């Protein structure tokens, strides 16, 4: 009888940074790139990394290539899956640090990128879910429509979709995400 093993990563500290769902998704994308290109090098990795959660619309492909060239000066150097995971985590940390310093300094660092609110931080992962304005507006409209007549929520509704009142109500426990 065989059991489900999932994606195994030899480094336990690296394994602990991702859920099995995330590892399967990342492994599938990595294998697909390897199948399409024959092998994965730091030259063809920026295109894949640009599409990953936490990096999409936050960092440019050129910035990813520059970051990878610091660790891998030879752009034709083949990279293995675990090295890819490490570089992904390192890049996320660098992006988070850059966004944090831009926010602390009064901002301009995000340039023309879309504003988003991070609402998910977990101690076992470095991934963030970014909620864009359109998603937030849709969610607020849904809440206002379906919960607007609730006697308990009357004093909190309607929620303004352009502000952060939604997140205040979630933080205070009035609404559960």
Automatic annotation (TrEMBL):
A Gene Ontology biological process term: actin filament bundle assembly
Keyword Repeat on entry: yes
Please give the Gene3D superfamilies that the UniProt record associates with this protein.
Answer: Calponin-like domain, EF-hand
An example of a GO molecular function for this protein is: actin filament binding
Keywords carried by this UniProt record: Actin-binding, Repeat
The record's section on InterPro entries has: CH_dom_sf, Fimbrin/Plastin
A cellular component term (GO) from this record?
cytoplasm
Q: Does the keyword Repeat apply?
A: yes
Designated name of the protein: Fimbrin-like protein 2
Give the encoding gene's name: LOC125514389
């Amino acid at each position: 009888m065989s059991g489900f093993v999932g994606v195994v990563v030899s480094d336990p500290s690296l394994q602990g940074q991702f859920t099995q769902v995330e590892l399967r998704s990342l492994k599938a994308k990595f294998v697909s790139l390897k199948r399409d290109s024959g092998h994965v090098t730091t030259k063809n990795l920026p295109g894949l990394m640009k599409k990953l959660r936490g990096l999409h619309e936050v960092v440019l492909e050129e910035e990813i290539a520059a970051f990878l060239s610091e660790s891998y000066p030879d752009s034709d150097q083949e990279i293995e899956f675990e090295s890819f995971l490490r570089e992904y985590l390192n890049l996320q940390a660098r992006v988070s640090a850059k966004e944090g310093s831009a926010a602390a300094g009064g901002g301009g660092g995000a340039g023309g990128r879309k504003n988003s609110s991070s609402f998910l931080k977990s101690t076992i992962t470095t991934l963030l879910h970014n909620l864009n304005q359109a998603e937030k507006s849709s969610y607020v409209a849904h809440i206002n429509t379906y919960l607007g007549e609730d006697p308990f929520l009357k004093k909190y509704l309607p929620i303004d979709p352009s502000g952060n009142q939604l997140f205040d109500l979630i933080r205070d426990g009035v609404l559960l995400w």
